[in-house]
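Hey, quick one: can you model this chain's 3D structure?
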Amino acid sequence: MKFAYRFSNLLGAVYRQGNLNFSQDGNAVISPVGNRVSVFDLKNNTSETLPVSTTKNITCVGLSPDRHLAIVVDEDGAALLVSLITRAVLHHFHFHKPVNSIRFSPDGRKFVVTKENVALMYHAPGKQREFNAFVLDKSYYGPYDETTCIDWTDDSKCFVVGSKDMSTWVFGAERWANLIYYSLGGHKDVIVGCFFEKDSLDLYTVSQDGTLCVWESDTELDGLVLMKSRDKPKPSRPAEEEEERLEGEEGEVIRGKAEAPKEKNTKNVRYKQRSKHFFNKEGDFNNLTAAAYHKPTHILVTGFASGIFHLHELPEFNLIHSLSISDQRISSVAINSSGDWIGFGCSGMGQLLVWEWQSESYVFKQQGHFNNMASLAYSPDGQYIATGGDDGKVKVWNSNSGLCFVTFTEHTSSITNVTFTSSGFVIVSASLDGTVRAFDLHRYRNFRTFTSPRPAQFSSLAVDKSGELVSAGAQDSFEIFLWSMQTGRLLEVLGGHEGPVSCLCFSPVQSILASASWDRTVRLWDMLDSWQVKETLSLTSDGLSVTYRPDGQELAVATLNGEICFWNPHTATQTGSVAGRHDLEMGRKETDKITAKQSAKGKSFTSLCYSADGESILAGGQSKFVCIYNIKEQMLMKKFEISCNLSFDAMEEFLDRRKMTEFGSLALVDEGAGDGEGVNISLPGVRKGDMSSRHFKPEIRVSSLRFSPTGRSWAATTTEGLLVYSLDGSMVFDPYDLDLDVTPASIRKQLRLQEWVSAIVLAFRLNEKALKQEVLETVPHEQIPVICGSLPDIYVEKLLGFVAASLEKSGHLQFYMTWAQSLLMLHGQNLKNRSGSILPTLQSLQKSIQRHFDNLSKLCDFNMYNIRYAVALSKQRGVKRAAEEDEGEEEEEEKDDDDGLSEEMSEASIEDAEMVL
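Sure thing. Here's the predicted structure for all 917 residues.
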């Protein structure tokens, strides 16, 4: 169970290339990220990466109408049929050529794939199990150049295909007598989008030069007549066409011609151009790059190379609004089912945006590091992950939702290291721009900037356990700088290394700083004794990385010869070593002139990280593998392959001989500013219109590794992004003390007999999460302290770990808090004796409690102000009511006085009358 980590999520990248899709309810965006697919839930503000991957970067994704199935196609045409419900791969298929677009019919029975200049219609996989999930139905030939886009009619009778040859072709999905194919012209540039009107054969076509053509059909959908079988012509297959067809594929071939079909008894469908509209031609508006149309609301969305998008109402072409959401090319546009939200993908900056056009506000706005990620750090409670990249940005990600919630852009050059202070509210980053900056997570500001007397490029960083001392190592002056976090003043410059300082690390229990350098030494600096060198550890090769064990009793150092050495920092003696050079298994780069086996001899680990319990160590470097070693046995326990994406360099062990010529490798040919693969680099200062841009193929490598403080997950910054491996995301059946009597039936029988302790012990022996939760939540609240006191010691830690995991997602806060409190109070001393092994569990519990505390504190603060307002309002009303009551009493007293006077007057008048009488 300890090494049963599974890929959990991909952070740091939200979009690379390809088309965006919305879920059926419109509350989630499905985005291709490299060779993986991420799903962003806009309603719950969470992200999830599907546990499937292709061999190269994904170019297009097709979703079935019910959004239960997805066909994912990569750059080479290799396709995966994926179930979005079970997250499993159902079928593998290869189209043998790059696929431009893929689209399911609205009834879900067929789908069309376009590659080169042909459209292939397949039968969609059904609910029953089939030997071949993709069966070719028909092949449609019409365009002379590559196809670009597809759209279906609402009744799945016809589909339209746009092409780079500026033509648009309408094809019948069945053999219609009056519509086999129809070719439309009228454009002077590449067709970007073609869309049918709702319940009609009317068409809209949009081209790259910013032209919209409205086509009107003289026939309704009901007017299509099915061709009789005797009239059905035999398909002709030219010899060259037969060679292009794939082996084992069967189906009709429909070949369109530039002229209209010959007249028959049935009147053929005809199109006429109803109108033609032009977008604003100023600036870069004429380079239209993406388009989407929402049929129920008649809204057309067009994206341009300048980052501007337009909303038009069709067919009148009324402009609703025009806004700029980015300064980069909009690569993909998608509209959700209700038509309220519009998704935009910008591949140049790795941006994913969801815009609500009616309120003109962002629903979702995320951007990953558009260049390499250099470093990461977990917060002390494991809730946040901070990353720094070569783009000079520091981003903070929520480990639960997988989304970035703040970005700091103060650095002007590549960031080499980031770290959290022990409080968890301050992030410190070092950069090649010669500054070390501290960021506040309360106010989201850069409140400290540390600089050196002479300009220096900082390559390493460390903060002590108190958060007061900040140290950074320079790679050019071989010095270590110390600053005070409180005052921001430079305290000391530590000299002594004879090479660049590659890594710094503070001891978690003492004020000792360890520094590794290329001069083949690790120096231990005493922060309490005038910053003197306490010990100097001699290495066999250049030191690349150094880290302390969580208890501070061991030191691990990675060296240039591929070894990991373990030292006792108190006695300065080496306790062991691991030779990891053969575990790297480096691939061969395209420009290498030596084999991968020879190349691997010069590779080494560049990042080390201890597990939370200190028994294992993670190591990664210039390779696609991350190795986990058992320190006590000094042996490799498991290797994690972080990527199988062949779009990266140094992935394959052997080179493709087809790329080798008598003049050398084709990879050495500079393709200029064309549509080459890889990452685009432009000249400094050029924002758009750069004709000197070049492309390079990024090399796969691991730049940083960190274990979560909870011990449940670990993360790695790689060329692909921030990969998170977790124990929670996998279904691992790991029972213990299991015999024939431990069954769900016997456990439920113990529950009916109210034998709570026995039921809990049996449930943990079977170790099924759902059953454990059922047993625990059946226990009466008042019985919890009694049961905790009766539990065997071996089950206390397991129960505490389960409570910590359940508390994070459960709504029964008081119930699980009572379990945690009772376990800690009754078994505190025994748990303290095993504090080293139980520390990850306690940190996981603290993370769950802290998360609920943060959420409830915001709610309570909000309610507190409401209550104060209500109390003040009630007091004001009470004062007003009291004043009204006082006024009422005065009026009654005055009335009583008036009544008394009138009575006296009446008595006097009676007496006077009697006297008169």
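One thing worth noting: The chain has a mean pLDDT of 83.
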